[in-house]
Amino acid sequence: MEIIAFDSHKRYTLCSVENEKGEIIEEKRIEHERGNIQSHLSRFTKGSPVAVETIGNWYWIIDEIEKAGMEPRLVHARKAKMMMACVNKTDRLDVRGLNKLQRAGTLPTVWIPPMELRDKRDLCRTRVSLVAQRTTLKNRIHWALSRYGIAEPDVADLFGNKGRDLLEHEMCHFPENTRFATRAQLNQLDSLKVEIEWLEERIREVFEDTEEMRLLRTIPGIGFIFAVVIAGEVGDVGRFASSLHLASYSGTTPRVKSSGGKTSYGRLRSDSNQYLKWAFLEAANVVCINRKKWADRHVSLVYERIRPRKGHGKAIGAVARHLAESVYRVLKKKENYRDPATGRSFSTEA
Questions:
Q1: N or C: which end of the chain has fewer CB within 10 A?
Q2: How far apart are CA 127 and CA 120, in angstroms?
Q3: Which residues pair with 345 in a beta bridge?
């Protein structure tokens, strides 16, 4: 059996093939055309491991490896670079380093979702992207009002029906070109609203309401859309050793500096699954909005305890971490969320 590693780029992949003794059998550049990678790998022993880093176009490369009958290993690129500890960086050094880690059994790999799930997840990830664009546009409009000293209309939602009517009235105080730009942004918001609703309709058609998703919706702040995102990104919860590992993977744990008996906590980790992090932070904001209605629940008590001392952002982060750890427990135990403060078990959230 051979050991194979890829250093893939936009237009080509450098393939290095070694035997189990570390002797190089072949190193070749493969141009990126469909079928080329499969054809090249078919000359070697089926079932051989093939390491490929988590680059932007890994989806189709993994498909080619699987079609060739090989075992794909998706590599955590940052960790692999640290473990190889190479001062210089070249394609050849990279592929040889990956093969060295494979022979030593220390290759840092990440989960490869099934092809069907990879396809479905694109719906949720596109929705996340569109929502981010919507937020950016809304912030720009808030900034325009602030820039010209215009008090925002006293409404719960500036971009709801009543808020839009009041906003249109206030826009008359803008200079001509700012008014034109703001109206263009409002038109874009209307377009995004239609696209997001269209995507949500498709998500409800494509994703089945499984038992795992029902369990997720018993957790405060997690509705159908968040449950779909979380279920799709977590996959098999058994791949996490503990709830802390899932919370870390989700980016809901802070950076820690501890030395000389002093410990300090920084921002939430950025080297994480950004889609899970988004879902948990958004769910935590839902908790914040409903904290008076859920006054006796643990998530509301956590927020209210931390906000006066450390502010809204840290409080939201703490709630997000609790939600991440709760996801692990409900999926691992296959039981409804049980509130730590009340001891009650909740059915699916509205």
A1: C
A2: 12
A3: 338
